[in-house]
Amino acid sequence: MNKDIISGKWSQLKGQIQAKWGDLTDDDFKVAEGNAEYLSGKLQERYGWGRDRAEREVRDFEDALRREANE
After folding, report:
1. Is it the case that residue 26 has pLDDT exceeding 60?
2. Which of 11, 37, 39, 57 is 20 to 30 A from 50, comparing alpha carbons?
3. Quick one: average pLDDT of 13-32?
4. What's the sign of the alpha-carbon dihedral 57, 60, 64, 66?
5. Cα(28)–Cα(60) distance, rounded to whole angstroms?
């Protein structure tokens, strides 16, 4: 998992992340501070997803950000 995109732009991305995964709380964001692994763990916890699904969701989100940046 590429942690650079999420950690490097954390403050700008929080709104997008919260819009995508609305069950995450402000406290989750404060603790995560750009840590993609923590974020995927919280997705597992909040949505009941398995590890693979949560990591895939974060990876897909990062891929979408990359595509957006290259446009």
Report:
1. yes
2. 11
3. 88
4. positive
5. 20
Structure tokens that stand for 24 in this block:
């995450």
Residues 40 and 57: beta-carbon distance below 8 Å: yes
As a three-state string, the secondary structure of the chain is CCCHHHHHCHHHHHHHHHHHCCCCCHHHHHHHCCCHHHHHHHHHHHHCCCHHHHHHHHHHHHHHHHHHHHC
Its pTM surpasses 0.85: no
Q: How many residues are listed for the chain in this entry?
A: 71
CA distance 41 to 50: 9
